[in-house]
């Protein structure tokens, strides 16, 4: 395992829980992996296929995310490919049936629709694992529930001796139980890492919407756009995205924009420029960010209260992945708390409605709480911790000074 880790991924040692999970998968045991953003969950399903010499199947929710991961793996010398609506190479499925790939990604829709003959052929050659990434999407209690994920359990009766692996960065105890039940896991090995990102400072401020506040925000962001690192600003509406993007651009800041109404080519270009540090700031809806592996994001700002604490934790967790001090600000208005009926209108079942309401209430409580917000976040995910580091009088300027000191700028 260590030689595979070094050869393909360039690491000398495993991080916490990685090796234990990999060993269990090789022993053909089901696993549930709940580890914070940036903790290296993907290695848990990328290493076993290379060790065992059998194809690993990975279900992923976004085609763009699969494409990025496949490209990265190919650059490392791993035989990887994906199946989904955007795949134009008609030979991929045939090659997959013949076991020509180490790792094969597919959308949940494709996994459920692919004929049984495909699985039969691949099973004869050998499947090392069936991994479900972003596994919280399975649960109606999760913050990104997707019906297609809920249908993956029917593959359990086809892939009888294949270990199922669920992976997520954000799952409460209720969601974890739902994932294990939905995937029909048998005596799974459960690895739950710490949710405490010690290098991140969490701050919350109330504000009044309008151009005056945006101008103030632009001045604050300007402090970060030298050589310190990148900033992501998440907005709850496309209108806010466009307004803040325009103000930052007019201030001479190298800024990108990303939302669901842009065409794929424009979104991909924004993503590419941001990853390559040609843009210092990205203003986006929550459509941006899943799977981003950019270590030098120094600041994540939420312009408006998010719809759930789980999504907030995941989005803010894209900050400071290199371990250097970084800051997460959440700006909210009281009007943000009046969106419950709008969010519930998107639900289909009573369970989903209750889940949305509970998630929104938790996010609102996080905005209003007067005690340590780090403690509040950890408690939400069922983790206990000491109060070390809480209640310190950090400001944007002190965080900046600390980062400049560490970076020796």
From TrEMBL:
The record's catalysed reaction(s) read:
ATP + H2O = ADP + phosphate + H(+); Couples ATP hydrolysis with the unwinding of duplex DNA by translocating in the 3'-5' direction
Keywords, comma-separated and alphabetical: ATP-binding, Helicase, Hydrolase, Nucleotide-binding, Nucleus
GO biological process assignments: double-strand break repair via homologous recombination
List cellular component terms (GO): chromosome; cytoplasm; nucleus
Stated family = Belongs to the helicase family. RecQ subfamily.
Q: Where is the Helicase C-terminal domain?
A: 220-362
The family database entries (Gene3D superfamilies) matched by this protein are listed as: P-loop containing nucleotide triphosphate hydrolases
Give the main localization category: nucleus
Q: Please state where this protein is localized.
A: Nucleus
Q: Name one GO molecular function term.
A: ATP binding
Q: Flavoprotein as a keyword?
A: no
Cite the SMART domains for this sequence.
DEXDc, HELICc
Protein name per its UniProtKB record: ATP-dependent DNA helicase
**InterPro entries (alphabetical):** DEAD/DEAH_box_helicase_dom, DNA_helicase_ATP-dep_RecQ, Helicase_ATP-bd, Helicase_C-like, P-loop_NTPase, RecQ_Zn-bd
What is the main EC category here? isomerase
Q: EC number(s) on record?
A: 5.6.2.4
PROSITE patterns membership: HELICASE_ATP_BIND_1, HELICASE_CTER
Q: Which residues form the Helicase ATP-binding domain?
A: 22-189
Q: Which SUPFAM superfamilies match?
A: P-loop containing nucleoside triphosphate hydrolases
């Amino acid at each position: 395992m260590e030689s595979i880790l070094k050869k393909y991924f360039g690491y000398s040692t495993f991080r916490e829980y990685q090796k234990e999970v990999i060993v269990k998968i090789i022993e053909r045991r089901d696993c549930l992996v709940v580890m914070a953003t940036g903790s290296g969950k993907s290695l848990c399903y990328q290493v076993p296929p290379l060790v065992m010499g059998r194809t690993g199947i990975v279900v992923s929710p976004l085609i763009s995310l699969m494409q990025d991961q496949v490209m990265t793996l190919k650059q490392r010398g791993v035989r990887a490919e994906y199946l989904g609506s955007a795949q134009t190479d008609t030979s991929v499925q045939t090659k997959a049936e013949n076991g020509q790939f180490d790792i094969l990604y597919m959308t949940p829709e494709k996994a459920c629709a692919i004929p049984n003959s495909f699985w039969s052929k691949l099973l004869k050659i050998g499947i090392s694992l069936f991994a479900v990434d972003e596994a919280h999407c399975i649960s109606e209690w999760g913050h990104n529930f997707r019906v297609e994920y809920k249908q993956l359990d029917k593959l359990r009766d086809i892939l009888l001796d294949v270990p199922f692996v669920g992976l997520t960065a954000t799952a409460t105890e209720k969601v974890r139980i739902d994932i294990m039940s939905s995937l029909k896991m048998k005596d799974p090995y459960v690895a739950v890492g710490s949710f405490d990102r010690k290098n991140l400072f969490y701050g919350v401020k109330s504000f009044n919407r309008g151009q005056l506040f945006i101008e103030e925000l632009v001045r604050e962001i300007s402090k970060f756009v030298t050589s310190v690192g990148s900033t992501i600003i998440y907005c709850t509406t496309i209108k806010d995205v466009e307004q803040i993007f325009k103000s930052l651009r007019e201030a001479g800041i190298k800024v990108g924009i990303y939302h669901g109404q842009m065409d794929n080519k424009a979104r991909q270009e924004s993503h590419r420029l941001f990853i390559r540090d040609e843009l210092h700031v990205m203003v986006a809806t929550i459509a941006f960010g899943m799977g981003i592996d950019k270590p030098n994001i120094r600041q994540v700002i939420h312009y408006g209260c998010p719809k759930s604490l789980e999504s907030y934790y995941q989005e803010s967790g894209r900050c400071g992945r290199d371990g250097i001090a970084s800051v997460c600000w959440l700006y909210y208005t009281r009007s943000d708390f009046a969106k419950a009926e709008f969010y519930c209108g998107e639900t289909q079942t009573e369970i989903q409605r209750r889940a949305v309401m509970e998630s929104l209430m938790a996010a609102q409580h996080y905005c209003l709480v007067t005690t340590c917000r780090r403690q509040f976040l950890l408690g939400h995910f069922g983790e206990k911790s000491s109060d070390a580091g809480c209640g310190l009088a950090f400001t944007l300027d002190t965080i900046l000074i600390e980062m400049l000191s560490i970076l020796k700028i």
